[in-house]
Amino acid sequence: MTDTAPAxxxxxxxxxxxxxxxxxxxxxxxxxxxxxxEDLLPVPVGGRTxxxxxxxxxxxxxxxxxxxxxxxSGLIAVGMDWKQAVxxxxxxxLVVLVPMLLTGHAGPRYGIPFPVFARASFGVxxxxxxxxxxxxxxxxxxxxxxxxxxxxxxxxxxxxIGDGWSDAARVGGYAWTMWLSFAIFWxxxxxxxxxxxxxxxxxxxxxxxxxxxxxxxxxxxxxxRAGGVGPLFDQPSRLSWGGPFWKLFWPSxxxxxxxxxxxxxxxxxxxxYGRSQRAQTWGQALGxxxxxxxxAFLSVLVTSGSQAVYGxxxxxxxxxAAKTDNPVGLLYALVTVLVATLSVNIxxxxxxxxxxxxxxxxxKVSFRTGALITAVLAVLIFPWKLYSDPQGYIFxxxxxxxxxxxxVAGILVADYWFLRRTRLDLADLxxxxxxxxxxxxxxxxxxxAFLAGGxxxxxxxxxxxxxxxxxxxxLAPLADYGWAVGLCTSLVLYLALSLPAAGKRRTAA
Length: 509
What we know:
- With 509 residues, this protein is mainly α.
- The radius of gyration is 23 Å and the shape is globular.
- Helix 2 (66-77) crosses helix 3 (82-104) and helix 20 runs antiparallel to helix 21.
- The chain contains 22 helices and four strands.
- The chain crosses the membrane at residues 57-78, 85-106, 174-194, 206-223, 248-267, 288-310, 330-355, 367-387, 393-419, 440-461, 481-502.
């Protein structure tokens, strides 16, 4: 790893403010060339305006969605009671908050997005490896969430309009009105992202309280139908707090962490707009673990109430809302579900791959073009087929995604915090031949650590419904701990490979 700029390259023209934030020196030329474009360049200090509330609202908006609602219910379905499910989700989000804050630190300090941040460890060209992997994962999630949003429009609109909508002629196995609903929701998201990050910030600001109020309205409605809050706590448990629970706890914990594993990497895409480190630290700490735990708690109570009222638990909030015959209530539920899904899908699954695809060809692909590429790929993966088997595909998806992306997080943390002590050269992140060029633009140490961590993390994982079996059966005992195995392996191996080279340079100096 190269820690000093090669001979002949002038020192970076950057300045450090008293609060620790760094920017290109006033009057100095901005980085240019084939590895830079307007969307990837550092955000000037004057443009870093997001406050603690903005980051808190971002997380409230992202956490309150249909997928998050069903996380706790999924844990209950495999045997936990409401206390155990909420406990598992709370611990998972406290754990994943740590890499969120560690990788998010580079955002407000340097104003750079994730793919540029990854150049410091993987190389200016090598950063495309983790960026594309993460982008493809986000495309999958964007497609799935868009299909969920389309289903909400189709199902609830059918309750309002009638059988003419619900029983329309079928095309490709679905009513043509379902395809129309999917297309409408897809286009709405593309329209919002096309207006840029400032529009997204404003959207998240009002979406967060709107969705939170909607969740409490659903709780009030279910409590009134159940005859009070007492029945909402009566969900039976099939597990004690002994061995059976802990055997289920650890793989469930990794799955819950995997749910936000993409955000633990791409959080610099948002924190780069932060007014200060305090804003992103407090905003994330207040927004992520508290919001997810509260939302899980609400979902468990409402679902428990549905069992008392209807005789069986109704885990899907769309299906539950459709049980009301009040048109105003149905319309409110439809808007709430749409806002919730829009909020998480745009922030978590569209912003980040847009930057990732832009990083692959900065001179040809802008942020908006990258977003459009993401939206198109999300359709081409046939999300309706992926979501048709959620029990198998989603849980396999979470495990594989969490394990693979955990390896990237380990490398980023090792490089930025342990090797560089949070010091980066902004100009060199955008040019060939600088300190982050390594060999041909690639840092082989990061690639080796990524591959080794990835094999150990997901090599023994079950791959149903893709096919029956495991790639490396001998690694099966590690499969339930994929995220932790991937992160720790890559972090330790990257340091082991990099420290000797760093020591030699310090000795030569």
